[in-house]
Amino acid sequence: MPDTALAETAPAKINLHLHVVGRRADGYHLLDSLAAFAGAADALRYRPGGPLALALEGPEAGALAAEPDNLVLRAARLLAEAAGRAPGGTLVLEKHLPVASGIGGGSADAAAALRLLSRAWGLGWETARLAPLAARLGADVPVCLDSRAARMGGVGERLSAAPALPPAGLVLANPRVPLATPAVFRARQEMRPGGFSAEAALPAAWADAGAMARDLAACGNDLEAPAIALCPAVADVLAALRALPGCLLARMSGSGATCFGLFETPAAAAGAARHLPSAWWRWGGGFTTGGRPLYSAAGEPAGA
Ligand code: C5P
Q1: Structural domain includes residue 268
Q2: Interval 144-161: pLDDT, tens
Q3: Ligand 1 center to residue 181 CA distance, Å?
Q4: Do 153 and 185 reside in the same domain of the chain?
Q5: Among the listed residues 95, 64, 91, the one whose alpha carbon sits nearest the alpha carbon of residue 2
Q6: Which ligand 1 atom is nearest residue 185's CA?
């Protein structure tokens, strides 16, 4: 058993809707998005001693290199600098989430590193103190600090309360094609140079998964069309999700290529995920908050 004081989970971030509402002078896009977190996660452990190092393991580790610019190492160095200490120890990243796939794997890993090292180095820094460091690492890192559903504004770093999520199931599927976020934003800009969406109108809470799916159907992911233009396999994934029995809504997450399907329960989602092509990365289960399952753990990983 790993020492839980020196271990963290890094849950996948799902953008239930993503509207591009404007563009800053520096080219970054202003967003309105409801982010939630899946039971699918990477794991991060810490071993004290020695200079700062990163070891990679797990089924998706091959796609990643433990290079100095790895976001986990950048997070460690940034925290050490802010705390006025030398970075040290080995971070072991167990990679389960596909890389460059629109579910914030790298951002979740960086946020987990900030949380873990804050404890391991005896700093005891809470989210409020870590948030400015998180924002410097990437637009998606702040929302991953707490790993609970939040409404994202600004370029992603401005967080506000999310509608209370009902019990629901979630299927994730990725065609195993990496998509670079800047390329997808660039393609959106070429397709709709002056076209921006309005912010979504969402209620304070949803009674059930059906109500959530109906309201989300009135929103969209503005990066879906440009992602499909760059990676037509995204359209195949969406079609396959929509064809699964019990799928209430299918949409791409973030800048893709991972897509999600909403289901009534984690068990229904886990069962449905097994029908997807085994060549894809696929997972079925429920939402989580702060690394803890929100709903009964009826959903089990499928093919992950
Ligand atoms: O902040 P992050 O490293 O996740 O963003 C990667 C790239 O995605 C940025 O360099 C930018 O090109 C694009 N991006 C954007 N607008 C955002 C977030 C990201 O244009 N809100």
Answers
A1: yes
A2: 999 999 999 999 989 999
A3: 6
A4: no
A5: 91
A6: 20
Contact 39, 273 (CB under 8 A): no
Our count of domains for the chain comes to: 2
pTM of the entire predicted model = 0.93
Which tens digits make up the pLDDT trace of 232-241? Answer: 999 999 999 9
- Site to probe by mutation for ligand 1, drawn from 21, 26, 28, 190 as the one with most ligand atoms within 8 Å of Cβ, is 28
Q: Any residues with Cβ below 6 Å from ligand 1, and which?
A: 28-29, 31, 138-140, 155-156, 181-182, 185
pLDDT single digits (tens) 40-95: 999 999 999 999 999 999 999 988 877 778 999 999 999 999 999 999 999 999 99
> CA 255 to CA 147: how far, in whole Å?
19
**Is residue 170 located within the same domain as residue 120?**
no
Residue 180 within any structural domain of the chain: yes
Distance 24 CA to ligand 1 centre (A): 11
- ipTM summary value: 0.93
Residue with the smallest CA separation from ligand 1 atom 12 is 182
- Structural domain for 59, as ranges: 4-160
Give CA–CA dist 283/300, Å, rounded: 8
How far, in Å, CA of 123 to CA of 128, rounded?
13
Q: Is the pLDDT of residue 31 over 80?
A: yes
Q: Are residues 251 and 138 in the same domain?
A: no
CATH of the domain at 208: 3.30.70.890
- Is residue 301, in this structure, part of any structural domain at all? no
The residues assigned a catalytic role are: 13, 140
